[in-house]
């Protein structure tokens, strides 16, 4: 045990030293070294979130390679410093400060769970650096130091609810991992479900990575909802669907709408297990767009011919390209100038079509509802039609709050 | 409606208890006999899951899962034998060091699985004949969970028979009662240790197969079961098979019934509080009568 406490002491001391060192200067000054510019790529390469995040790292690396092959940014080649957040929020915070303060990166691409983003946020605010966050999340946050390209609640959760209402579902059971994203997303959903005069049949949370769903499923069976809305993250999904199936509740008998299951997760879980379940994203691999076909081909050439492509991967990929365009517009790598330039970029082409950053640093984008087929691909069955402007603060759940940057 | 939920949760409690028990049995055996806290026990479960995955690839078909069980048992027992021979037996005089060493083994095995199979989990599908279920008095009993309960009972019976009726069991009980005396009368204590450790690891491997029917198979899956397993062993009392079983039942039922009123997260908090209070009242564990009586 003496070993552990001395290790903790050493960590604490080095953490303190880092904090002191950072007081003396901005983090990004050393970003452009010689003929190169360093950026950080920070995803979970191990742990319960690896199922989703490794491929996001791959997509971010693909964009960096493509940009380098085309001559780099402002004449500088990008050097990617890759770190492993290990599915652990405090590790994300440590690695972010390591990237910024030791690595001198100009910006960081990464994060998945909101717990990891919340843990990194103080690091980015303290150092004045910029995080490009690629995943749908619960909103209720508005920091100048983060570019939120993943869906805000009004770009994923609410379009999903609107779709469910249109199908005639009147009672909803909410299942989620126990952390800030599912809790907040469900808070927003509950407000809208109640406002629509429908019923919340039940609500259940399981710790992130949890594998026992017997009690949750018993509650679902007892509540008899019309549809389950699933905000579980990571490996828990495998346990949830396996135990639903064992209990005789397949997605075919009780519809499940998931917010964190994409093509990659379906492939890893075995598509047969989740066939027939629904998902809402801003991108599906099956989107028929020329830019999408080009992206899929480039990704598969590099990472394997049967690789699945997901929404957060595309957001990670477009983040890197948006950063390049913004740096070129700003004429330098200063995070403050880059984020302002990014919000003023206007529309740019991506595998998910033309998108743009709003002044609140979130992405203006469409939403699609897909139904999972046996081959692990989604059949797109509905879309939002027009682009949806991002709303970080849901007016029903967080009245009076606005995001002005 | 509520009484139905209660009955369902009673069944789920027994089901969860059987999972806890399978995960904890191997640990209870080696901890009871050698006082070695094997931090790599969870990775034996993981190994079992991956061996099931490989077995399902080599021999597809509805009965592959039944073949995977002995395969995983043998594979994990072999791995346990290697760990015991190469590491634990050499640290016999330094129990705290075995804790660190087995933790190291646990990290090495996790990383090995990550390098071989990737950080993303692999798919182990329950065969179709485990798909359905039966309804008893309105309570739905899934076949998969019934199967796991049956496997648990079979394993328990097997261990009990082995310990009570076989020559090996006699030696194990002798070493368990008085290690020095057993050595003095000519029992090869180290061989008994090795056998028990292999048996414990083998049971963990077997448990890994059935856990894969209800959960994911990933490099770090062992970590999700190791804490309940330790709780069961600590609460059950040292080296008592009956105590371990009763503790698993108490914990499984407590956790399932608590979930009627609170979330899974809160149920875990209550479960840990319950164990702390229980150990305040009964530091020796649930049933320590038999071994205590023999000790005295």
UniProtKB/TrEMBL annotation, chain A:
Signal peptide: 1-19
Entry keyword set: Signal
PROSITE patterns for the chain: PROKAR_LIPOPROTEIN
Pfam families tied to this protein: Peripla_BP_5 (PF13433)
InterPro entries in UniProt: ABC_urea-bd_UrtA, Peripla_BP_I
Domain of life: Bacteria
Entries under PANTHER family matching the protein: ALIPHATIC AMIDASE EXPRESSION-REGULATING PROTEIN, PTHR47628
Protein name: Urea ABC transporter substrate-binding protein
Species of provenance: Edaphosphingomonas fennica
From TrEMBL, chain B:
GO biological process, one term: amino acid transport
Cytoplasm keyword on record: no
Localisation: Cell membrane
Cell inner membrane keyword on record: no
Recorded topology in the membrane: Multi-pass membrane protein
Keywords linked to the UniProt accession: Amino-acid transport, Cell membrane, Membrane, Transmembrane, Transmembrane helix, Transport
GO terms assigned for molecular function: transmembrane transporter activity
A single cellular component GO annotation: plasma membrane
InterPro entries, alphabetized: ABC_transp_permease (IPR001851), ABC_UrtB_bac (IPR017779), BCAA_transport_permease (IPR052157)
A Pfam family reported for this protein in Swiss-Prot or TrEMBL: BPD_transp_2
Record-annotated membrane-spanning stretches: 20-38, 50-73, 146-163, 194-214, 226-253, 260-281
Family: Belongs to the binding-protein-dependent transport system permease family. LivHM subfamily.
Protein name: Urea ABC transporter permease subunit UrtB
């Amino acid at each position: 045990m003496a070993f552990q406490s001395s290790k903790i002491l050493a960590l604490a001391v080095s953490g303190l030293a880092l904090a002191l060192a950072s007081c003396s200067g901005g983090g990004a000054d050393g970003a452009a070294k010689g003929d190169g510019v360093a950026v950080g790529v920070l995803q979970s390469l191990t742990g319960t979130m690896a199922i989703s995040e490794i491929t996001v790292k791959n997509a971010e690396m693909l964009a960096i390679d493509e940009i380098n092959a085309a001559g780099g940014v402002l004449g500088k080649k990008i050097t990617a410093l890759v770190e492993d957040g290990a599915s652990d929020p405090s590790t994300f915070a440590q690695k972010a400060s390591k990237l910024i303060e030791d690595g001198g990166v100009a910006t960081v691409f990464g994060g998945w769970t909101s717990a990891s983003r919340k843990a990194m946020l103080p690091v980015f605010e303290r150092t004045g650096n910029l995080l490009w966050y690629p995943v749908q999340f619960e909103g209720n946050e508005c920091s100048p130091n983060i570019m939120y390209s993943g869906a805000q609640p009004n770009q994923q959760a609410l379009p999903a609810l609107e779709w469910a209402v249109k199908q005639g579902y009147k009672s909803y059971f909410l299942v989620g991992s126990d952390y800030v994203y599912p809790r907040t997303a469900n808070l927003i959903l509950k407000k809208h479900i109640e406002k629509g005069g429908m019923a919340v049949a039940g609500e259940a949370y399981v710790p992130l990575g949890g594998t026992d769903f017997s009690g949750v499923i018993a509650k679902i069976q007892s509540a008899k909802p019309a549809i389950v809305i699933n905000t579980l993250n990571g490996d828990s999904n495998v346990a949830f669907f396996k135990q639903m199936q064992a209990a005789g509740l397949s997605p075919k008998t009780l519809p499940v709408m998931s917010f964190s299951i994409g093509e990659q997760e379906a492939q890893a879980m075995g598509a047969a297990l989740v066939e027939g379940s629904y998902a809402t994203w801003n991108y599906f691999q099956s989107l028929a767009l020329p830019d999408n076909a080009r992206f899929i081909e480039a990704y598969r050439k590099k990472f394997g011919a049967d690789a699945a492509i997901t929404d957060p991967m595309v957001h990670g990929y477009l983040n890197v390209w948006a950063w390049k365009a913004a740096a070129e517009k700003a004429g330098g790598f200063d995070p403050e100038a880059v984020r302002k330039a990014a919000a003023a970029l206007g529309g740019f082409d991506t595998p998910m079509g033309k998108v743009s950053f709003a002044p609140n640093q979130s992405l203006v984008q469409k939403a699609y509802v897909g139904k999972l087929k046996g081959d692990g691909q989604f059949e797109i069955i509905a879309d939002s039609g027009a682009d949806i402007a991002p709303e970080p603060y849901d007016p029903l759940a967080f009245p009076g709050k606005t995001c002005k940057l | 409606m509520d009484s139905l939920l209660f009955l369902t949760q009673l069944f789920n409690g027994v089901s969860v208890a059987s999972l806890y028990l399978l995960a904890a049995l191997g640990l209870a055996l080696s901890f009871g006999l050698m006082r070695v806290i094997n931090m790599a026990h969870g990775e034996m479960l993981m190994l079992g899951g991956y061996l099931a995955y490989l077995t399902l690839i080599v021999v597809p078909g509805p009965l592959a899962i039944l073949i995977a069980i002995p395969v995983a048992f043998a594979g994990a027992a072999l791995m346990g034998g290697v760990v015991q021979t190469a590491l634990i037996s050499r640290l016999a005089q330094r129990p705290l060091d075995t804790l660190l060493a087995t933790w190291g083994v646990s990290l090495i095995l996790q990383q090995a699985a990550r390098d071989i199979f990737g950080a993303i989990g692999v798919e182990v599908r329950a065969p179709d004949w485990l798909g359905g279920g039966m309804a008893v008095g309105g309570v739905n009993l899934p076949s998969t969970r019934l199967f796991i309960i049956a496997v648990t009972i079979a394993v328990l019976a097997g261990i009990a028979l082995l310990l009570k009726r076989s020559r090996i069991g006699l030696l194990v009980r002798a070493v368990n009662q008085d290690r020095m005396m057993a050595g003095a009368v000519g029992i090869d204590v180290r061989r008994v240790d090795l056998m028990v450790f292999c048996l414990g690891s083998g049971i963990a491997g077997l448990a890994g197969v059935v856990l894969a029917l209800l959960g994911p198979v990933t490099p770090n899956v062992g970590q999700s079961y190791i804490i309940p397993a330790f709780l069961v062993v600590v609460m059950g009392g040292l080296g008592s098979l009956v105590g371990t079983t009763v503790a698993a039942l108490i914990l499984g039922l407590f956790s399932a019934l608590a979930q009627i009123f609170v979330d899974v997260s809160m149920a875990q908090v209550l479960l840990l509080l319950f164990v702390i209070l229980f150990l305040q009242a009964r530091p020796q564990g649930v049933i320590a009568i038999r071994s205590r009586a023999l000790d005295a």
